[in-house]
Amino acid sequence: MSRLDSWTRASHAHAGVTHPTYRKGTGPGVVVIHEIPGITPDVIAFAEEVVGAGHTVVMPQLFGEPEAPMTVGQVAKVFPRVCVSREFTTMALHDTSPVADWLRSLARQLHAELGGPGVGALGMCFTGGFALAMMVDDSVAAPVLCQPSLPFPVGRRRAADLNLSPADLEVVKRRAAGCAVLGLRYRLDPATGTRFDTLRRELGDGFVAVEFEGRKHSVVTEHRQQEAVDRILAFFRERLHS
User: Cys bridge to 203: 29, 89, 120, 176, which one at CB 3.0-4.6 A?
Assistant: First the structure.
């Protein structure tokens, strides 16, 4: 039996781009964006916890094969494709990945359907910063960044960059005064570079950091921390259930 059998498969189209989506649950909306190599069993398990906490979860499939496990082989298969895709900005400084516009459209549609104060958005690793870019749209009321890793931290400047254009960063800074950003990582994770320092500097009290000791990486999947899951669910409850 497929882990996604209980999820409703559909698709979302915007500006000539279409991606499959998987949806489940009731309550305020949350967009859960998978990491490389795709919607792995661990990503699905985490999304089920968000559903169980009283949310309508939509998982877009941006790349990879649904339910394929997190293995070296799967990562090697997907990684080269996403690195050359025009949807993702992996190395450029001060630039928002084009896929953010598609994700904002998905969030707007979900919010228009469900109402309430807004929807949550959670990205992880390769997609971690996408939730930050999504909050440029007012529909996103609870952005969560799990170990944001773009642009790839090659050199000091890229390690500190937020994968946002200057214009988008200004909107994020303005919104963060009333729409806090939750970020989670392992403190010594090299993939996150120094961008948590950048987030603290740019957003001030609008950035809430949850950091765990060690050099591991995936806080809600491969190297899951229960505290991370608890803090995320509490954040969604506080921001989305008013």
Answer: 176
